[in-house]
Please model this.
Amino acid sequence: AQSVTQLDSHVSVSEGTPVLLRCNYSSSYSPSLFWYVQHPNKGLQLLLKYTSAATLVKGINGFEAEFKKSETSFHLTKPSAHMSDAAEYFCVVSHWNSNSGYALNFGKGTSLLVTP
Amino acid sequence: GAGVSQSPSNKVTEKGKDVELRCDPISGHTALYWYRQSLGQGLEFLIYFQGNSAPDKSGLPSDRFSAERTGGSVSTLTIQRTQQEDSAVYLCASSLYRGDEAFFGQGTRLTVV
Model:
């Protein structure tokens, strides 16, 4: 079975400090991986994606994520948090299902709080 | 269009009434998804359309829920005899093909009173 686990439901950081949002996945095949952000009362926006090219992926707004196959992880990081980063973040894996083809599996989300 | 468009943005309905939610995907995107997001919850997959293939309905929670996609473009999600537990934000997304990055609409917030 394919699944995504976001290890923290809530993360709180101070403005200007690093951000780490953790994501582990399980997949029998080489997956594609995504991070999405959702600001309050907004739709989901793609931050970055990994599709078997470079393992370190750079996204928008200074975020990046590293695909580590040995650890089955795809953690999201940012060197310095900004107040505007406060939002819900979703880790997503795209995997092949023999019954229905490709499918997107969403993690349960991590709520990022940034304090002044 | 420039992005995925959903309408209405907000809908309040009485318990037992039927509602229709509309999604206009990005032009040229063959894959279209519907998800439901309840308060404090993650995204729940509802249904998926890919071109002219039969839709993947495996996520629909009950037979009160149905969806169609006309001409491979606009999609309508219909909820019959709405219940209070149907209250949620319904999100539509489209992508060039299934498994690729999905582009989301702003969602429809449904409140059943």
